[in-house]
Specification:
The structure holds three protein chains of three kinds.
Chain A: E1 9-11, H1 12-26, E2 30-34, H2 50-54, E3 59-61, H3 66-78, E4 82-89, H4 90-93, H5 97-104, H6 107-110, E5 120-125, H7 140-144, E6 150-152, H8 157-169, E7 174-179, E8 186-188, E9 202-205, E10 210-214, H9 219-230, E11 236-240, E12 243-245, H10 249-259, E13 262-269, H11 274-286, E14 295-299, H12 308-314, H13 318-329
Parallel strand pairs in A: 2-3, 2-4, 4-5, 5-7, 6-7, 10-11, 10-13, 13-14
Antiparallel strand pairs in A: 1-8, 6-12, 9-11
Chain B: E1 2-6, E2 16-22, E3 29-30, E4 35-41, E5 44-49, E6 54-59, E7 66-68, E8 72-77, E9 116-117, H1 119-128, H2 132-138, E10 142-143, H3 145-154, H4 162-180, E11 183-191, H5 193-204, H6 214-228, E12 234-237, E13 240-243, E14 249-251, E15 253-254, E16 260-261, E17 264-265, H7 273-289, H8 294-298, E18 302-306, E19 325-329, E20 333-339, E21 342-356, H9 362-377
Parallel strand pairs in B: 9-10, 14-18, 18-19
Antiparallel strand pairs in B: 1-8, 2-4, 2-7, 3-6, 4-5, 6-8, 11-21, 12-13, 14-17, 15-16, 19-21, 20-21
Helix pairs in contact in B: 1-3, 6-9
Chain C: H1 11-36, H2 51-58, E1 66-68, H3 74-80, H4 84-92, E2 109-110, E3 115-116, H5 125-138, E4 145-150, H6 157-168, E5 173-179, E6 182-183, E7 186-187, H7 188-191, H8 197-203, E8 207-212, H9 216-231, E9 237-242, H10 260-268, H11 271-281, H12 287-310
Parallel strand pairs in C: 1-4, 4-5, 5-9, 8-9
Antiparallel strand pairs in C: 2-3, 6-7
Helix pairs in contact in C: 1-2, 1-3, 1-11, 1-12, 2-3, 2-9, 4-12, 5-6
Classes of the chains: A alpha/beta, B alpha+beta, C alpha/beta.
Amino acid sequence: MSEPAAAVRLTYREAARQGLRAALASDPRVFLMGEDVGRYGGCYAVTKGLLQEFGPERVRDTPLSESAFVGAGIGAAIAGMRPIVEIMTVNFSLLALDQILNNAATLCHMSGGQVNVPLVIRMATGAGRQLAAQHSHSLEGWYAHIPGLRVVAPGTIDDARFMLGAALACPDPVLLFEHIVLYNMEGELTAGLASADIDHAAIRRAGRDVVLMTYGGSLHKCLAAAAALASEGIEAEVLDLRTLRPLDDAAIMDSVRRTHRVVIVDEGWRSGSVAAEVTTRIVEQAFYDLDAPVARVCTAEVPIPYPKHLEDAALPSPERIRETVQRLLARGGAS
Amino acid sequence: MQVDFHLPSLGADMESATLVQWLKKPGEAVHRGEAIAVVETAKGLIDIECFDEAVVGSLIVQPGTKVPVGAVLAQLLSETAGAPPPAKAAVPTPAAAAPARLSPAPLAAAPGGRARISPAARRRAHELGVSVEALERAGAGIVHLEDVEHLAAQAKPPAPDARDAMRIAIGNAMARSKREIPHYYLADTVDFSTARDWLASYNAKVPVGERILEGLLIVKAVALAAARCSGFNGYCRDGRFEPASAVNVGTAIAVRGGGLVAPALLGADRKDLPALMREFSDLVTRVRSGHMRSGEFTAATITVTALGEEGAELLWPIINPPQVAIVGSGRIALQPWVHEGAVVARPVLSLSLAADHRVTDGRAGSRFLRTIAELLATPAKL
Amino acid sequence: MNPAAQPPVTRERALVLLRDMLRIRCFEDRCVQLYGELKIRGFLHLCNGEEAVAVGAMQALQAGDAVVSTYREHGHALARGLAMGPLMAELYGKQNGTSRGRGGSMHIFDAASRFYGGNAIVGGGLPVAIGIALAQKLQHGSGITACFFGDGAVAEGEFHESLNLAALWGLPVLFLCENNLYAMGTAVALVESQTDIASKASAYQVASRAVDGMDVFAVADAATQAAAQVRAGKGPAFLELRTYRFRGHSMFDAQLYRDKAEIEAWQKKGPIITLTTRLKGLGLMNEDDYQRLEREARAEVESAVAFAERGEWEPVAQLERFVYAERPQ
């Protein structure tokens, strides 16, 4: 579909835009709709220029009607199109929960397999910009709870560029989460890379003493923590989960088998979270490989406060990750 | 007075912008609320406004330059201005509540005396032959992988005569069994001709590597009987019988240099004869080469023991605790057998049962043996 | 609108209204500067151009009434009577802010004046507003609930559900739709099949009219009449206040979706200029009055900034407070 890219320096935002452009250019069934994706250029400027390039039939501004336009995306997908619905942020997806759960996730099953929903929903997610309680949610874990959905979280420039293509090729509904603090992140596309899968986790840093498992906006925090730990002689592996539903159990257990100590970093609240699910799977499948209890670094159980110092204290940080690893490696394990 | 004009932050995630155009020249007046320059951001071109009545002094940043939020763009002359530069978000560094580095000292042992050994450490201990008791003595509190490695390295070198060690271990187990389990003994003789003939014709049709041993027919029959007759498959612990959900038949295998081990064929009642044969062969190979897995030693729920072609016709075995039954099969030999009133020569198998009288009695034991015999009489169904 | 039917415009009343609008305008402009200096963070939505809606509507409300608003709420809060210092401190995130700094610009609350936020979800306040009105009705008081929202909210399902239910149950809600012609970056004409928003409310059997939102007297009169109706138990009422937003949707807005010419045209008929011109024409005020009022407004804003600057940051150790209601010890 797209040609392999030479090593190019760009932002995560630009990589996402390239992914959208490639999708729109290569498949006439693909169209994009959402609030302010056209004339405004996208709340986070991801879709800037696409309306001008592809026209209003392919790039559609919608009214503020999440339930209606997500439902419309479902319908269009059933009827042969390949819609990309942008819900401005995961915070507004709550208005479309019924469509996502009771239709997108469920139509295939309820129809005995006659109908499938090849819909991609892109959403900005996460906290860290002082947007306060109603604009800072990380609900990837909620959606990962639901059978019938695929949930992915691109945490790197390569994934921002190529996960969308893989999501569009998937015959099932895919929710693709872009963390807001990643949009300005700069980096290089890997030379020669032409695609990505949405089925596997990826080891971003090999290690030996502990594995940090994470996704999305917490990936760069884990890499920073790992770099700091290395200077103390602790070699931390960093596993980017990439796909939250389904989870890549094989990769998770492989890391556990080699390192024996696990820290899961998840920006959701810990109760009933992705971190809780991964911990349970490790207990189920690799219990005898654990040398200490599984530790979690999650957001404090409080609605995200507006002032920066309180928000920073609530969210996972490289410092908290580092401290958790140090406690874990001491006798007895974490907590 | 001269005042710096900084690039303002225009958005939550704006970190920098490129100056595109100055809207005012040095010496020109600019009014409060008027746009003074145009910058380019990720979202597009945005005017930046001046908040004071001022006159433009010098323009510092040239069009086309990308600068971070807070950078000085120009200098203005103003009577009323006095705005401070954009502070790096003026927040307090939260009092670093860094937790004290946990000391590596061991935690107190768990109440009740149960050793707190990590799963990985426990498994490694088994692999290395380090006993749980040794771990408990050594690691006050919590035992990790590294403690086990350490302990194993310190352990006394293995006894020079491995055979003696094994004999002692077997002896201890058998003594305990005799001491604690009230054994009762039953025996039965079985006409093995049907089974033997069936097996011969089966084996004739398959390659040598897939031929099935007679002993496996007995193992399968015992497994099926154990699944049907309650009280013979499981463990008796603290005087209470715990029936096992799977039938894992321990098969006694001689170890090179003397000694006997009885690793299990798991779920033997559910596997067909070829599968059982393959697994048995694999077990034998690994026992002889010393590559057993820990689970295989502890998983047997009932044992079958045979002395082979050189053995006695009838044996009285001893139960392997915590199992509750053991079936012995003696040498299958041609014996006189009464068939329809006449005496004929038949291959006869003597089956013996030793069982735990806390769990079953002679009546149940007889039924169990009878079931085995009936199964052996219809070998095609095994 | 028939000028003859209007109550006489007195100098006293007019200057109060002008002062209130200037307080809002000066506050909002100061916020732009403070945001640029990183004192205010997150999302900041300003109401320059819409001051007449806030000030005019609040003329119709009493102390016992409740107010539900949106993220573009500074004007509503100031007009309702919230003190400027704590409001500014809230934008700073300081402990002496209206929500102890926890909410920020989009989440202003003041229980004493029955100001119930401050909602970042478009349309999110309407169901809450009808609930407050329901309680008012069940409690047989004379209070009503004023619910502010924008033209964007009209597209959300919550709008339709709320209007229907309010009408069905005869709830004392005064629905105030601030139609500033853009929902973030999307023009009303591009997202509404029926752009006459007032007529949508009529379809739900809610007494409804459109008002020139740039004329503070027109807004005040219409709101007073509508509130009286609601107070008399005649069910909910709806005003579509036609206005315009002079600044972007929020701070970080390149406004690619509208022309500068359009903005400038509307600025020339903004609420402050409109009132000032009219009052000067009637001989009710002069330029000195205007300058004095503006100076006073700016001085009040500076005091508020000083109040915010003095405020303390809430200690991190208290992070997990206020998740649940605190029981008396």
